[in-house]
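Project standup — Tuesday

K.O.: blocked on the structure for the chain from last sprint. Re-posting the sequence here as requested.
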Amino acid sequence: MEIKEREVVQTTVSVIHEVKDFEKWKVKFDSDEDRRKAGGLTLTGLGTVEDNPAEIFVVFATDDIEAAKAYMNDPELKDLMSQAGVVSAPEINFWKRF
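H.V.: unblocked you, prediction finished:
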């Protein structure tokens, strides 16, 4: 009997939103690293839009799409984002890599 390895499909998660103050937001963002890791998310990119430094984009990789979705839908994350000065609804996308 041949045993096949389970194929791991990595997904990219992107989040875009506006903040009042990048530095304040970044402190709160950094404080949530352990919960992001528990949610299966690895930070791969972070920046601001060139002509609008209040617009933040964050990019993650994950091998566990369900854990990532649970993290993104956690009410505690919504509270943290509010405390961090997020002023727009986040645009969250899940991108499957081929």
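K.O.: great, moving the ticket to review. The mean pLDDT is 91. The first strand starts at residue 11 and ends at 18.
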